[in-house]
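User: What would this chain look like folded?
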Amino acid sequence: MRFLDVLLGRTRPVQPNLDVLFTVPSAADTLQAALGFAPTGAGAVCFKAAEGAASTQSQREIGDLLSLDPALETSVTRDEFGYTWITCRQSVVDIPALMTGLHAVNATLADAGFGSALLCTVLGFRGESDGTPRRLGLVYLFKRGTFYPFAPTGGQHRDSQLELRARAALSGDLPIETDLGRWFPIWGAPVP
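Assistant: Here's the prediction, encoded as structure tokens.
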């Protein structure tokens, strides 16, 4: 951090470490052992799509890259806020392969100069909480380099207790976002 930044109270953004996505398979094992939540085989990358030839070329490269894995079914959607979601689904759950695909999407966009447009990557889980079927998303914040759990319950409600239990279970496996104010709800996400 520079001297002037310190004086003015500014912070520099954390440099994302996309390789941390490869630690998610062991974290998924921890989540399953501690809370009974199993991966669904679905994950998505969210970004603000830019206009122009470079953006179109990047999305084409992503599609070509992901088509190399016949076990991944991919789709591209836009949410109500104008964000683009590239979703990958597997019929047979293989978390390391899924994380490789999601890492490739992030890296392709970052390498093409669209790193500042990346918002998050999310991986879906299913299980039970208090005897009720629940969904849980493990969200990686690109600009923070941290993860947080997101547990939607329907409508625009979330299970905060489940999120805190997941945080406790995963704290030894992943860099968890410490600022709960940054645990943004991702209501329109195609995953979890």
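Helices lie at 3-8, 24-35, 53-66, 95-114, 160-170. If you want, I can go into more detail on any region.
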